[in-house]
Every structure is written in structure tokens, then in C-alpha cells.
Amino acid sequence: MKRNGKKIRAWMVQRDVTISEVARRAGIARPIVSDTVHGKRNNRKALAALLDVGCPKRLLALPEDMKNQEAA
Description:
- By secondary structure, the protein is an all-alpha fold.
- It has one domain (5-59): lambda repressor-like DNA-binding domains (434 Repressor (Amino-terminal Domain)).
- The protein contains five helices and no strands.
- The longest helix has 10 residues, at 5-14.
- The radius of gyration is 11 Å and the shape is globular.
- It starts with a helix and ends in a 12-residue tail after the last helix.
């Protein structure tokens, strides 16, 4: 399954979660988070931060090594 950035962004907007907030949590730059949300990257820090804010795994199309990861 390919990551659907529009669905992830819709989920984020509904919960007032911003790209900046996810980037701060992950300790990375905003463009890295944005690229990860839209499937251009597979940054594990960004994906872990998205899980931490409650983003459903089904939306994230996690890489194999992260599929069993729980939110911190």
C-alpha cells in the first residue's frame, strides 16, 4: 500500500496536529515530515512521531521494520 498524504493530512487537520508539531517531536525539519507524509520519503523518526500523536498505522503504510512498533 502506498501512503496517501491527503488522508494523513485530513486526519491531522481534524485533530489540530501540524507538520511543525510532528517535526518538533521527531527532532527533524518540517520538509522531511511533509515528504514522509506524502510518501516521498520513509523517514522513521517522522513516522514514529506520527504514531506518537495518534495517527493510525493503517494510514502510514509503515515499512516492514516498523509494523509492530507501538506509539511511545
